């Protein structure tokens, strides 16, 4: 039987007797919708974490300098050597972002209220403005935010609420200098980021050179150099290459595979500035462990739904193919081989699966839209998995294709047993009306 003739025969029977397959069509559609929701939400939550972490830390791969004299501070003194090491590594990042971080020693004051900041990041706005485009941020009437000039600051919405401050208000930023003295500056609020997550709650951004001046650092010094790539593919190999380059030029910590290694190396003693190379997954390894746990749960749900799809397919095909035994026997008596008949059944299952998965894919968008309307504020710490306060899905063509393939495989496996039983039944007995 020719290929296209088999497909045409399969389609003709399927659409002519669609009512018989309606239960299976509904089961497959709902099953695929559920599977799509699980996989797309899992990917969306992962991307939300890494997108938030990329903005927070300023890149995908980092070189940090830690100075233990007199107290440990994040401080890169030899920027030229770091730039040379990055060039030697030949990683060709999209950009290198230089940041100064005033870590846990800063506070904001406004109208008699004070809020301590966990991180005050000094950024080069021209290089980093694009990172803030995807951020849910109040920008004032002119919708323009610019940290150049050193007299503006971006703060988080929770901190703005605690201070009672709004766009355009002037707050006082107080920091500890490198020598342990207090220094302060009046800064106008240029933007307020709606971020109550682990990363963004007590965090603010200002011009790097202005923050350097407050801390007593030279204008060209910084705390970290962040290498920005198009994605995280091969990030561990890139981290190893950069570490080798840094180690050849500067005093550096050993290569670190996780956050525990990083914490251990920070607890050790050294003289001067020691350089650390960290990738974004290592920086957020504790969060990614939680992500892996969530993904593990999603795989269990995936397997349960796949079992339901398989069971529904087996039951449906047992009933339908038992009814069609006379039809198959007649076609075999006319000279149609067992392989040709199985090809017809296979294409019936394939067409049904494709139609079901298409409907399921569309239905999954409805489910995801409804889920995105809910508030998840009641779940502590869940904000880190949200994008702009909402659940977001990531539809990967490769994942969708894999899901379709898995569902099709389940349908074919469910079809196999009943099909072989029907096609291999005694021809004379079936034509005579026997079971």
TrEMBL record:
The lineage of its organism: Bacteria, Pseudomonadati, Spirochaetota, Spirochaetia, Spirochaetales. It comes from the Bacteria. Pfam families: FtsX (PF02687), MacB_PCD (PF12704). Residues 300-425 form the ABC3 transporter permease C-terminal domain. The chain crosses the membrane at residues 21-42, 300-320, 341-371, 395-416. Belongs to the ABC-4 integral membrane protein family. LolC/E subfamily. Keywords: Cell membrane, Membrane, Transmembrane, Transmembrane helix. InterPro entries: ABC3_permease_C, Lipoprotein-release_system, MacB_PCD. GO terms for biological process: lipoprotein localization to outer membrane. It is found in: Cell membrane. This is ABC3 transporter permease protein domain-containing protein. GO terms for cellular component: plasma membrane protein complex. It is a multi-pass membrane protein. Residues 26-207 form the MacB-like periplasmic core domain.
């Amino acid at each position: 039987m020719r290929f296209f003739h088999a497909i045409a025969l399969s389609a003709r029977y399927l659409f002519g007797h669609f009512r018989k397959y309606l239960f299976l069509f509904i089961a497959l559609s709902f099953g695929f919708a559920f599977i799509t929701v699980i996989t797309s939400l899992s990917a969306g939550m992962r991307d939300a974490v890494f997108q938030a972490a990329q903005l927070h830390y300023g890149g995908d791969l980092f070189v940090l300098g830690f100075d233990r004299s007199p107290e440990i501070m994040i401080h890169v003194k030899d920027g030229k050597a770091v730039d040379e090491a990055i060039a030697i590594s030949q990683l060709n990042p999209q950009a290198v972002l230089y940041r100064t971080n005033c870590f846990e020693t800063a506070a904001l004051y406004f109208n008699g209220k004070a809020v301590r900041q966990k991180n005050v990041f000094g950024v080069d706005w021209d290089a980093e403005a694009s990172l803030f485009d995807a951020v849910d941020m109040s920008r004032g009437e002119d919708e323009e935010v610019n940290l150049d000039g050193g007299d503006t600051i971006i703060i988080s919405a929770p901190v703005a609420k605690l201070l009672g401050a709004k766009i355009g208000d002037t707050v006082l930023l107080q920091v500890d200098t490198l020598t342990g003295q207090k220094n302060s500056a009046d800064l106008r609020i240029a933007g307020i980021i709606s971020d109550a997550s682990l990363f963004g709650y007590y965090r603010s951004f200002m011009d790097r050179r202005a923050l350097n001046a407050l801390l007593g650092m030279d204008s060209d010094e910084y705390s970290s150099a962040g290498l920005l790539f198009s994605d995280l593919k091969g990030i561990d190999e890139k981290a190893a290459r950069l570490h080798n380059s840094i180690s050849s030029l500067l005093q550096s910590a050993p290569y670190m595979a996780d956050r525990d290694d990083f914490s251990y190396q920070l607890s050790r003693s050294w003289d001067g500035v020691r350089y650390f190379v960290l990738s974004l997954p290592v920086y957020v390894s504790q969060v990614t462990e939680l992500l892996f746990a969530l993904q593990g749960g999603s795989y269990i749900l995936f397997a349960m739904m796949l079992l339901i799809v398989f069971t529904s397919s087996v039951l449906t095909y047992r009933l339908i193919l038992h009814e069609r035994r006379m039809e198959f026997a007649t076609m075999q008596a006319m000279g149609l081989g067992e392989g040709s008949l199985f090809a017809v059944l296979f294409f019936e299952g394939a067409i049904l699966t494709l139609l079901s998965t298409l409907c399921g894919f569309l239905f999954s968008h409805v489910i995801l839209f409804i889920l995105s309307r809910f508030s998840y504020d009641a779940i502590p710490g869940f904000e880190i998995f949200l994008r702009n306060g909402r659940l977001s899905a990531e539809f990967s063509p490769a994942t969708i294709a894999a899901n379709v393939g898995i569902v099709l495989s389940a349908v074919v496996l469910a079809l196999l047993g009943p099909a072989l039983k029907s096609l291999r039944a005694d021809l004379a007995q079936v034509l005579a009306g026997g079971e």
